[in-house]
Amino acid sequence: MTGYASRAYAESLAEFGKLIHLPRCGGHLLRRPVPGTSEHDAMGCYPLFFCADWNALEADLAELPRQLASVSLVADPFGDHSRELLESAFDVVNPFRVHYVVDLEQPTEKIGSKHHRREARKALEKIQVEVCQDPPGFSSDWNNLYQALAQRHDIRGIRAFSRRAFERQLAIPGIVVHQAWLGGQLVGAQLFFQQGDVVHCHLGAVTEEGYETGAFYALDCFSFEYFAGRARKLDLGGGTGLDSDGDDGLSRYKKGWGSETRPVYFCGRIANRARYDALAPPPVATSYFPAYREGEFS
């Protein structure tokens, strides 16, 4: 199990919850305290939950400790599951957002819109992109780059990760890091994990100068060339909005590269009805799951 599916990735998030291994399916959850209470629940590793055997997931969930009020996760869009299979294991299965996917089996010069290809050519005239040869040694620079982005966009909690989380992730075997340089100055980077024949863009961040000089265009274009022949698909991830229409700026940018889309499902299960109802007494006037955590990612 490599990348997102590895125990090492789950352990990189240990400061955000106690690791729970699911022995049948091979996945991992994080046990978290519910703020202001003595209760706990569990979530899948951020940003996506992976496992080796999706058919065995329900049996693992059924045997979770009774002290947990609920379980929530976002399912790998390339996982070997159907919506019906997810609905057999969870009480809530909702479309979360779409992911924009690049078909790496097409000629790389045909990937993306004319606009995006033009912007990438312009950016690559100024920016040099290269493969980082020492990902663990890049952890401090990467943390500074990403935390500046997190501050700019007010990203908090597990989505902001941490210095320790990045130290662990950049030491995971198989991680690929691309760096963008402008006149000898680091202006951006992207992190990737490959799961089988699918590459997932884990995270990307650029400086203000990187935004101004099109570093993301350069980084993305470089990644298509790099992974062509190594994988069939590159998952760019989704936008910032929770809807599947993709009206936000990040979605529009990724649409410009994408060859196709994949639906992503948010899944929630009440593990202990009495504990859940004590935290969110019915009737509950929200569709958010778990209801007692509404607003946690606002």
Please sum up the structure shown.
With 298 residues, this protein is α+β, with helices and mostly antiparallel strands. It is 28% helix and 27% strand. The protein has 10 helices and 11 strands.
Order of helices and strands: HEEEHEHEHEHHEEEHHEHEH
Number of strands: 11
Total domain count: 2
- What does the average pLDDT come to? 95
Pairing-aware structural class of the strands and helices? alpha+beta
Tell me the overall shape.
globular
Provide the helix percentage: 25-40%
Major beta-sheet overview: 11 strands, mixed
Number of DSSP helices? 10
List keywords for this structure.
alpha+beta; Aminopeptidase; 10 helices; 11 strands
Task: Report on this structure.
The protein is an alpha+beta fold. It has two domains: 3-96 and 265-293, no CATH class; 105-138 and 175-231, Aminopeptidase (3-Layer(aba) Sandwich), CATH 3.40.630. 28% of the residues lie in helices and 27% in strands. It has helices at residues 7-12, 57-62, 83-89, 114-124, 139-152, 163-169, 208-212, 215-227, 249-255, 273-279; strands at residues 18-21, 28-33, 40-44, 68-74, 92-103, 128-131, 176-182, 185-195, 198-206, 233-235, 260-270. Strands 1-2-3-4-11-5-10-9-8-7-6 form an eleven-stranded mixed sheet, with helices on both faces. Strand 2 (28-33) and strand 3 form a beta hairpin. Helix 4 (114-124) packs across helix 8. The longest helix has 14 residues, at 139-152. The protein is globular, with a radius of gyration of 20 Å. It starts with 6 loop residues before the first helix and ends in a 19-residue tail after the last helix.
